[in-house]
Automatic annotation (TrEMBL):
Protein keywords: Coiled coil, Nucleotidyltransferase, Transferase
UniProt domain HAMP: residue ranges: 204-256
Domain GGDEF: 337-467
NCBIfam families the UniProt entry points to: GGDEF
One cellular component (GO) term of this entry: plasma membrane
The protein, known as: diguanylate cyclase
Catalysis: reaction(s): 2 GTP = 3',3'-c-di-GMP + 2 diphosphate
EC number(s) given by UniProt: 2.7.7.65
Source organism (scientific name): Tahibacter soli
Listed CDD domains: GGDEF (cd01949)
């Protein structure tokens, strides 16, 4: 994987190589051109100066050996011309006649000797071509072939006949160019190294802070405290780290607030649940209590209802309950068989009360009630009609059977053992049967008349109401 550090180093290296390399090459070639131009100009100037300082007559004298010592003086002048310029390796004067070229004077021991054998092909070509102005030899060719660079200048005093020539050491030029190349290369290398060092420092600085930011991101994700940041804000990256720290701090504060709120909410929920459970228990208890109360009330109501229909002394039905039962019996008799009834009254009961007291009277009434129940088998069809008077309903029972039952009841009451010993009571009874279509009141009235007739007949008697006719049974 290419790290940021390596990427930065690589990119900087490429930029440096491309930028600095291009610039270095451009500068090298510009400087090399200037050096070459300056050298050429200087060599050319040397040739011009030399040519300007020579006299045609003197050269004639040297050429024809007409004046003794002329050659030595000429050579001395050429030698002096060289002394001022150490880069020049030789100077000469050539005489050009048509295509014939001959060196008439030269520095000694130089590269040029008298005659034409030591002149290069290029020099000979220029000289034979008829030199009109100062001319420089081919610098590039001189450098490549290891020859000296030359420059030629016609001597004005002897147009087209004498030409001054100088030779420049080409190796000196090559040396200058080599030095330039080395300097350029050295500068380039130094620049690359310096840039690499700076680039490395920058990359390390960035890498260090990226690592610092990464460390903080991991700490924030794991919920740990951020490691201390000692870096002072120096650039945008430091500002990013500082902003990150501030954001992390705000996030922590917000998370803390949320946790507190969650804790409070959880506590409130638990409290609410407890209260709901308490209320549910209370409601359950209240419901249970209410149920018990309702049951009690129903029992009381049932008892009250029963009490409303029951005679408190004897436990038999009271008159109202019996009247309701009679209404139902009348309704039922329309589809089925009819019913009979007995009306019974204790004889001389006032005398009992008066003689034995009301308590004994009550005992007599209760004993009579038990006889009515045993006659019928249950207490549902026997009622206390009022005072010492009783009523017996006999559903589905005909008049004769009712009469038999009444007689049995009369006999039972007569034999009824009572306290105090010797107390005896009797009972008078009237019997009637509901006639088809007869109103209940009429039947009750007939039965009541039968009872009165039983009283009138001497008591302890059963009288039957057969229609409006009455018959005494005993
Ligand atoms: N001990 C007691 N006496 C009652 C009760 N209800 C009515 N009596 C009495 O019953 C008596 C009825 O008397 P009467 O109507 O004169 O009838 P009687 O004495 O039985 O005479 P006859 O019916 O003609 O035989 C009255 O003295 C009433 O006070 C009761 O619940 N207990």
């Amino acid at each position: 994987m290419l790290t940021i550090k390596r990427r930065l180093l690589l990119s900087h290296l490429l930029v440096i190589l491309l930028g600095a390399g291009t610039l270095g090459l451009y500068l090298y070639f510009a400087a090399a051109g200037q050096i070459v131009d300056a050298v050429g100009e200087r060599v050319l100037d040397n040739a011009r100066v030399l040519a300007a300082g020579l006299d045609g007559d003197e050269l004639d004298a040297v050429s024809r050996h007409s004046t003794p010592g002329a050659a030595a003086r000429m050579e001395d002048r050429l030698q002096r011309a060289l002394r001022g310029n150490p880069d020049l390796v030789g100077a000469y004067v050539a005489e050009v006649t048509g295509t014939d070229v001959r060196v008439v004077a030269a520095t000694a021991p130089g590269a040029v000797s008298e005659g034409s054998g030591s002149l290069t092909v290029d020099e000979l070509a220029l000289l034979r071509g008829g030199l009109k102005a100062a001319t420089l030899g081919d610098i590039a060719a001189a450098g490549a072939e290891g020859n000296d660079l030359f420059a030629l200048a016609p001597i004005a005093a002897a147009p087209s006949r004498y030409v001054a020539g100088v030779r420049f050491r080409a190796s000196s030029l090559q040396e200058s160019l080599r030095t330039l190349r080395l300097s350029t290369l050295g500068g380039l290398l130094f620049g690359v190294l310096a840039a690499l060092v700076l680039s490395r420092l920058l990359a390390e600085s960035l890498q260090r802070r990226i690592a610092l930011l990464g460390e903080r991101c991991r700490a924030l994700a794991a919920g740990d405290a951020l490691p201390p940041n000692q870096v002072a804000i120096g650039d945008e990256f430091d500002r990013v780290i500082a902003d990150f720290d501030a954001t992390a701090q705000r996030l922590r504060e917000a998370a803390g607030g949320r946790e507190d709120a969650l804790t409070a909410l959880t506590a409130a929920n638990a409290k609410l649940e407890t209260r709901v459970e308490e209320r549910a228990r209370e409601i359950e208890d209240a419901t249970g209590q209410l149920k018990i109360e309702i049951e009690n009330r129903l029992q009381v109501e049932a008892l009250l209802a029963e009490a409303a229909l029951t005679d408190a002394l004897t436990g038999l039905l009271n008159r109202r309950a019996m009247l309701e039962m009679l209404e139902q019996a009348v309704q039922a008799s329309r589809g089925q068989g009819g019913f009979s009834m007995i009306l019974a009254d204790v004889d001389h009961f006032k005398h009992v009360n008066d003689t034995y007291g009301h308590g004994i009277g009550d005992q007599v009434l209760m004993a009579a009630a038990r006889e009515l129940e045993s006659l019928h088998g249950d207490s549902r069809h026997a009622a206390r009609w009022g005072g010492e008077e009783f009523f017996v309903l006999l559903p589905g029972t005909g008049l004769m059977e009712a009469c038999r039952r009444a007689e049995e009841l009369r006999a039972r009451v007569e034999r009824m053992p009572l306290q105090p010993r010797g107390l005896r009571v009797t009972m008078s009874l009237g019997v009637a049967e509901l006639q088809p279509g007869e109103p209940l009141e009429d039947c009750l009235r007939r039965c009541d008349q039968a009872l009165y007739r039983a009283k009138d007949a001497g008591r302890n008697t059963v009288v039957i109401a057969r229609g409006n006719l009455f018959a005494t049974m005993s």
